Structure formats: structure tokens, C-alpha cells
Amino acid sequence: MAQVSCPALEFRLGGLSDGLDNRGFHARISLPLLLVLKKTGISYESVTLALMPKQAKRVMAVVNDLFFSVKLTEAAKRSGLALEFVKEGKLVLEKASEQPSLIIFDLNFEAVQPLELITSLKGAPETKGISLLGYLSHIQGELKQKAQEAGCDMVMARSALSQNLPQIFKRHSGIG
Length: 176
Known about the structure:
Largest sheet: 5 strands, parallel
CATH class of the largest domain: Alpha Beta
CATH architecture of the largest domain: 3-Layer(aba) Sandwich
Helix content: 25-40%
Order of helices and strands: EEHEEHEHEHEHEH
Number of strands: 8
Structural class: alpha/beta
CATH superfamily of the largest domain: Response regulator
Number of domains: 2
């Protein structure tokens, strides 16, 4: 079987205008294949196409709570996001250079010193554009203010984050 490398044409899949199905896959058909099908009179709709995963946007979570980690994982799957958990401050700074679309911080995860990490991320030219979201208990007003001063883009109560997680992930997935 000959293999031809060429740009591919995206087409509508299941009526979705962006070419994505509900699992975040792109359907593509190469130009030579389309021309061969046209010459032979075969309808391209009758051809079984391979679905290729679209490059998923990444979210990093600096979280130590197992139960909340499960909640984040489920929401990320539904949004088509790749989620990576990081539990060491040094590793957060290294992984941030890969430009995740969002970093979520448990502001009470003292072992990683989240306020210092936020300050470092917002102070570095290569990472200052990454969205940073911190969460805490609703009664920690002073910590909320410190996180905002450190450069955290959004600080919210854990309960509010849980409730709004699908919308937040959708916004950072680049879909919709």
C-alpha cells in the first residue's frame, strides 16, 4: 500500500462545523485520496476514515487532595483536556515551560509554597501568560488577598471551583 504525505482537508463530521466529534477527534481526508475517490466515482462518505486525536490542551494541577484530584480528572476528561498532577514546586516551574493553558493551585498545599510559585510564574516572561487559578476555603479571606497580590488570575472557594469546573475547563480547552 502506497502512502502519500500531503496536507489534509478537514471536513464536517456529524454536522459539527469545527470538524470535531464529541470525543475531540478531527476527521481529515487527504487531497490525493479525495481526487482518487472522485476519479473512481466512489463517494467519500462511504469510505471509513480513521479518526485522529486532536492535540489536547493541557492543564496542570498542583493539588494534594485525592478526592479533589478525582473530581478534576473527571471534569478534564469530559472537556477533552490532558490533566497532569504535580506535587513538587521545582517540577511545577519546569513543567510550566511547556505552556499549559491553566495551572490550578490548592493554596493550602504548603509543601509546594503556592504563593512563591505563583510569584515566580508571573515574574518569568515565558510563563507570565499562563492562567493561574487558586482555590481555598471560603473563610480564608487573607490568603485570597495574598494570592491575588502574588499574581493569581482567579482565586475562588473550593466549593465554587467544584461547581464551575466544567465551564472553567471548557474555557481553557479552546472548544466552544
